[in-house]
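Reply to dn_fold:

You asked what the input looked like. This is it:
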Amino acid sequence: MASKTVYQMSARQIILLAFAAAMIAVGATALFYSLTNFLRDRDASMLTSAEEASATPAGVSDPNTVTDEQNSIEVYKTISPGVAFINTTSYRQDFWGETQEGKGNGSGSVIDPNGHILTNYHVIEGAQKLSVSFGGDKVYPATLVGSDPDTDLAVIKIDPPAGLPVIPLGNSDGLVVGQKVLAIGNPFGLDRTLTTGVISGLQRPIRARNNRPIDAAIQTDASINPGNSGGPLLDKFGRMVGINSQILSPAGGSVGVGFAIPVNTAKRVIPQLIQFGEVRRPKLSASLLNVKDLLERGYRMPVQQGLLVYSLVPGGAEERAGLRPVSANGSIGDIIVSADGQAINDQDDLFRLLDKKQIGESVDLQVYRDGRTSTIPVRLTATPTARGTTTAPTRRPVQ
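and this is what came back:
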């Protein structure tokens, strides 16, 4: 009978074999994760490149592959045909009954193939006649589609010619100080002028002509002068990141401190301007006074900050919610000290909070009344409210 050899492993061999198996498993796992990460990063890179390519206008090369000079040339050649030269005409009667004609001009950006053009509200404010040209002899009559004095933005429209170039809208949330920007506009009537610079600052507070705060404005040293208003501020890919609007200058000319409204603000406003002709914001149907202003005038107030409810619109949401205004005998009304947990120091604070709300939503107002604070929920409406009076005389819109 044949005998079989039986192999037996020592404890040491078993340990070595287990160790080797563990190392193989670890290596396989590491290889698997490395391959997975590689494929994921490759796919993400391909997706990012595809998105960037789709967002970059045809005719503008990857800025990393050309000189800065060539990049500026390509952005100008590609984008400037879509920058509008807006001319305005207004009429008024003088003391003698004579009709006086006023002329103005500004800039704008074609934002869709239907002929909609984005510009500043102050460019077209008060105009009875609008016309647009694109650098040639052809002049297109334009009509006002909608305007929003609170953000100093407006949309006008022309009957578009075939092949009208459209300026792509970028993203202003990802901007950083120091990055290159380009401005195209019509300063002093010189059509489609290019200036370049960098983003000098972000989150700058500026005010519209009606004194409403425009938050998160872009500061740039790209030269902006009268006539640039409404024109695009572009990134190096040729995407609009801002709408040139104001300059800070004691003499009225460019000193390297210009301001642009973020394009993301415009993207939020444009659909309503086209659909409704206005931006429908929720507002409190109440007349409010700044407590700090009252203290400075010598009035004795029970709190140091907030908004005093001076009067209410009869039948308005605030009256129905139970807010108390100043009484006829002079008794103090409710003082709004916070809203949805955010401190309200002045009307700008309230405006910023309400600007993020929709009509029909509710806001919880914390009011000081009779020595204590209570919360009153108010359903928001579109009723106009009182406006502040603070001015910023050295920061001027440019026409």
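Residues 1-9, 28-54, 384-396 have pLDDT under 50 and may be disordered.
Hope that clears it up.
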